[in-house]
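TEACHING EXERCISE
Course module: macromolecular assemblies
Task: Read the component lines below, then compare them to the predicted structure of the full complex.
Student: A.B.
Group: 4
Components provided:
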Amino acid sequence: MECVIREATVEDCENLMSLIHEIADFHHLLEDVTINSQVLKADGFGKDPFFKCLLAEQPVENGCKPARPIGHALYFFGYNVNHGRMVYLENLYVVAEFRGKGIGKQLLSKVAEIALEAGCVEMKFVTMEWNRPAKEFYIRLGAHDTTDSEDLHCMVLDQDALQRLRQHGKEKISR
Amino acid sequence: MSSNSLNRFRVRPAEPRDCTEILRLIKELAAFENMPNAVKVTETDLLRDGFGSRPFFQCLIAEANKDDAMQETDIVGFAMYYYTYDPWIGKLLYLEDFYVMDEYRGWGIGTELLKRLSQATIETNCSCMHFLVVVWNKPSIEYYMRRGASDLSTEEGWHLFRFDKENLVRMASGD
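Instructor-supplied answer key:
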């Protein structure tokens, strides 16, 4: 299906927030979303952006306003200490009624193009183990599940742990 | 800068002149992880990507004082990190690499590095710190779990995927 891929602007933040809510809902984790469109504006379109975003839209007639975006790819640049520059794909989403039409692939293709132009040598992303359609989509395109193949596990230190480490540098379990 | 009470070491932000030593430590860590040939980055890459007009990473250095009157120091540990984004909770700090030379372990260098990283995470309003571990590296897992880390791959089913450069090239060309 033909679609227009373009960079998101600050004016798109309300629509982008709406798509982010849809992804969270898809993962049954809507209650985990704590930011809003104002935070997105500050974090993505201020002096020091923390992410970049592409939107997919349906083509429109001249003079007509495009409808709400039908997909998005949110990404940022990072570093692999062994290989160098990399891109991290944080979100890739297509609205339900437009899936299966090649839009996800078009978004991914554009992120890949941008990543290569920036000198990146790899792209990383996370998918939930139960999300078989997503895993199959990515594997068909050549991705490797490094949690399975290389035993890489994603870890987190949350606010409580960070506060303890900041103050005392001590372990959670007292001796 | 910060140091321990015996003045045996100090932790400071890395500077361009440290790239030679940072690369040495990166290679040592790769060798420790049984991947001595994995390191493709060069000093030039580190200089450009960490200290150029568009930094892809930040770095903390641990220096140990030599036991002589000249007070020269050796670089004996480092932590490489960068900022990432979760559209549900906002800014995060990602710890890409964290290493202390074997003969300097037990001095509290790792604790001090983690303390400084936790400070950076909290002071930049990041929600949490993310990182990867290889699950068979039991000492490493236990080190982080004792400090309050959670394993998102085991607990929530996160799988980390990777597209290599050849995949990026194929996707960017629209194949």
